């Protein structure tokens, strides 16, 4: 005897499965091949059908019509009125319950159509429970009526339907308000997550920019996928804000009134770069990532080696030194001296903007130099002459402009050059000026003109 015959339930299950598949295949074939179909189909339709025919396109759903909750609530109120005046005889009670059940079923179908919301599904479920109780009451009252049972069932139904009707009335009155609240929730929660990620990244300001970016993205991902993480972070920063307010505003601290850093300071949405942008578009793009934006922010981050007010980097460096109690002992010895100097250097330049390259100022200097006129060439002044100077006669009118133009020359007098030899055939002119021959025109010109 085979294994299948030993287990009738297993064999029966296998047989039912095979029969189901055979029936489905037979129905498909008889539908697609008109000769095998029991019904009569016209030849034109039969010639166009084949196994390759695509299934009929689904009908387009009708546009969703808004539910009128006020009308539905009115229908439920009418049902409550009918339940309060039910007949006492068996036939009249069953007829009244049949009408009430039909009304409630129509209300349920209306609530569940057109992609119902969670609130609609909850209302439909409550009304379905009332329908089941009324159907059972109708079945129990087929011969005799139990007044106690009727009172109990109707009391439960009236309470349930009144609650559903009052809730629907509230929905109809405050539907727009509820939509506005939903939109606010959809906007506020992402902004809250962004604010928490910004707080965490700014609290990591003592670490390099890649670490801040990593924490920023991590907080965004965790809070978006795991809402309890958002609650934990909100509670954590609320506690820090409250403690900061107590220490700085309510606590009586004698002498030292320096604000205690507890709640993180926001330098930027995501502080990544200290390099300022040059163009307007660049400044707009870099604004959420560029820091420090103010002089106060710069002082908060500037490493001052403990001189004056302590910055965030000063406090972080002190915390590092306190975490290593032998730091003062070994920081002057090798190899700790070089490493300590490297750490100190990195702490000082971590939040400083990079220096501008040396050639960046060249165009500006060239433009400034171009605005200054070049100095005039030095003028040769005769130091000695043997010709008699006739000061009694005035100089010609053509020489007068030379005396006015000379003071503008600021170059030092070059006395190292000597005057050219004067030929005896070329006598000195009146007034002590020398007349020389022009190398180009061959004419006579006055020196210095």
Task: Tell me what the structure shows.
The protein is mostly helical. Among the domains are: 3-48, no CATH class; 69-173; 185-250, no CATH class; 280-349, no CATH class. The chain is 57% helix and 1% strand. It contains 17 helices and 2 strands. The radius of gyration is 51 Å and the shape is elongated. The termini are far apart.
Topology of helices and strands:
Blueprint: H1 3-6, H2 8-32, H3 43-48, H4 69-84, H5 90-112, H6 118-140, H7 147-173, H8 175-203, H9 209-225, H10 227-250, H11 280-286, H12 295-301, H13 312-323, H14 327-330, H15 336-349, H16 362-371, H17 400-405, E1 435-437, E2 444-446
Antiparallel strand pairs: 1-2
The coarse overall form would be elongated
How many angstroms separate the termini? 140 Å
Strand count, sense and barrel status of the largest sheet are:
2 strands, antiparallel
Helix residue percentage: 55-70%
Count of DSSP strands: 2
Proportion of beta-strand residues: under 5%
Give the number of helices.
17
SSE arrangement, N to C: HHHHHHHHHHHHHHHHHEE
Mean of residue pLDDT values: 73
Question: Low-confidence stretches at least 5 residues in length (pLDDT < 50)?
Answer: 1-7, 35-52, 385-389, 394-406, 422-449
In spatial order, strands of the major sheet run: 1-2
Structural class computed from helices and strand pairing:
mainly alpha
What does the radius of gyration come to?
51 Å
Briefly say what this structure is.
The protein is mainly alpha-helical and 449 residues long. The chain has helices at residues 3-6, 8-32, 43-48, 69-84, 90-112, 118-140, 147-173, 175-203, 209-225, 227-250, 280-286, 295-301, 312-323, 327-330, 336-349, 362-371, 400-405; strands at 435-437, 444-446.
């Amino acid at each position: 005897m085979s294994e299948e015959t030993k287990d009738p339930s297993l064999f029966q299950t296998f047989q039912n499965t095979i029969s189901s598949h055979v029936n489905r295949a037979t129905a498909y074939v008889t539908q697609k091949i008109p000769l095998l179909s029991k019904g009569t189909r016209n030849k034109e339709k039969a010639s166009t059908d084949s196994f390759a025919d695509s299934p009929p396109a689904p009908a387009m759903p009708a546009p969703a019509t808004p539910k009128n909750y006020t009308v539905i609530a009115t229908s439920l109120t009418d049902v409550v009125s009918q339940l309060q005046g039910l007949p006492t005889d068996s036939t009249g009670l069953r007829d009244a319950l049949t009408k009430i059940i039909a009304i409630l079923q129509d209300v349920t179908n209306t609530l569940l159509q057109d992609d119902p919301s969670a609130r609609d599904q909850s209302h439909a479920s409550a009304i379905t429970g009332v329908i089941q109780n009324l159907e059972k009451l109708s079945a129990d009252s087929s011969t005799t009526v139990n007044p106690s049972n009727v009172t109990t069932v109707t009391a439960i139904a009236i309470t349930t339907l009144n609650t559903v009707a009052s809730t629907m009335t509230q929905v109809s009155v405050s539907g727009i308000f509820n939509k506005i609240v939903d939109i606010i929730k959809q906007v506020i929660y992402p902004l809250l997550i962004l604010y928490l990620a910004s707080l965490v990244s700014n609290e990591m300001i003592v670490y390099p920019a890649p670490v801040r970016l990593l924490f920023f993205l991590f907080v965004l991902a965790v809070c978006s996928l795991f809402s309890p993480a958002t609650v934990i972070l909100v509670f954590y920063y609320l506690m820090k804000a409250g403690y900061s307010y107590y220490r700085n505003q309510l606590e009586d601290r004698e002498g030292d009134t320096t604000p205690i850093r507890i709640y993180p300071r926001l330098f930027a949405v995501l502080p990544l770069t200290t390099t300022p942008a040059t163009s307007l578009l660049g400044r707009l793009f870099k604004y959420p990532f560029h820091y420090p934006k103010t002089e106060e922010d710069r002082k908060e981050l500037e490493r001052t080696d403990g001189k004056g007010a302590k910055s965030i980097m000063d406090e972080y460096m002190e915390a590092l030194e306190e975490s290593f109690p032998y730091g003062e002992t070994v920081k002057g010895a090798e190899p700790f001296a070089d490493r300590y100097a490297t750490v100190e250097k990195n702490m000082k330049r971590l939040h400083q903007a990079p220096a501008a390259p040396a050639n960046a100022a060249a165009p500006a200097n060239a433009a400034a130099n171009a605005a200054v006129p070049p100095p005039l060439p030095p003028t040769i002044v005769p130091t000695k002459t043997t010709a008699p100077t006739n000061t009694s006669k005035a100089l010609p009118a053509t020489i007068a402009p030379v005396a006015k133009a000379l003071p503008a020359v600021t170059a030092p007098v070059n006395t190292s050059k000597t005057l050219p030899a004067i030929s005896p055939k070329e006598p000195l002119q009146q007034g002590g000026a020398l007349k020389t021959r022009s190398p180009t025109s061959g004419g006579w010109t006055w020196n210095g003109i």
